[in-house]
Amino acid sequence: MKGDQIIKQALTILTSRLTQPGAVITSPELAYDFLKLKLAELQYEVFGVMFLDNQHRVIEFDAMFRGTFDKATIHVREIAKKALLLNAAAVILSHNHPSQNSTPSQADIRITEEIKKSLNFFEVRVLDHVIIGGTNKYSFAENGLL
């Protein structure tokens, strides 16, 4: 489909811009746009982490965990290990809801708190957790949950 081709091209351009040496997340909207393109159309849950340096430059985005249509198993240890390996100073957590509903579940809230507490021990800040539900997004930071 032509629409799929356009999305793929946009994602390629945005990924290229965000992963260039020195690319900086200058606004939440830039991160949201990237995450929407990466996650919105998936029919299964994916939990991804954007690893950032101390200037909020993107080190890497990793779709770390893949699940089913309604859940994914998250391993906090693996997120911490990767953050330390990349020498990340901050992260933006993200996942999609294939149901198109971007409202966080109690499990989403609990895992976010667990990740935040664990990474804090290593002085890695969680800047946001973004849930993508189709074209909608829910930001934990914007809604006071971080």
TrEMBL record:
Pfam families: RadC (PF04002). It comes from the Bacteria. Residues 24-146 form the MPN domain. The keyword Transmembrane helix does not apply. Keywords: Hydrolase, Metal-binding, Metalloprotease, Protease, Zinc. InterPro entries: MPN, RadC_JAB, UPF0758. The keyword ATP-binding does not apply. GO terms for biological process: proteolysis. GO terms for molecular function: metal ion binding; metallopeptidase activity. PANTHER family: DNA REPAIR PROTEIN RADC (PTHR30471), UPF0758 PROTEIN YEES-RELATED (PTHR30471:SF3). This is DNA repair protein. It comes from Hahella chejuensis (strain KCTC 2396).
